[in-house]
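Let us practice reading a record.
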Amino acid sequence: MARPESLAFGLYTIGHSTHPLDEFLMLLDRHGIEALADIRRFPGSRKYPHFNRDHLASALPEAGVEYRWFEALGGRRKGSGGPSKNLGLRNESFRNYADFMATPEFHEAAGELLSLARTKRTAYMCSEGLYWRCHRRLVSDYLLARGIEVRHIMPDGKLRPHVLTEGSVIDDGDLSYPPPPAGRTPTLFD
């Protein structure tokens, strides 16, 4: 694992889930979150319109939380068209995202997220309440592989430290999810 990067606060993740806005704001406040990085590629919700980008961009600053949209960290990526080194991820959308994490676009956006996190206690957000059902898990692996502590704010408000996903490999700083040895079934992201 890489030498830990110096972040005064570490990084947090949160899923907006089905929370009413006031409960969501209480979760952020409870953990001292000063900036929210929205890593949804399409930051909107018909069912929960209070989590639409425009609404958050006005409501969060009123609550003392900076809002930033990181479109380049968003999920729902198409396959690269080439061979994947992440065949240990059975779910195609997670495999596509893991492939995307090797691109300059992802690295640049992750760097911008880290720049924000160096100055403010930051949580990155997507919609899923449970991080292991979301690309936040892969982003967290990427950050942990670089020595950055990541904590997940669970729907009940408890914190869970991120642990590198089973089956992932860090080789010279590069993260991948290779297929398991012959005879073993991939278990990552069924």
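A brief commentary: The longest strand covers residues 11-15.
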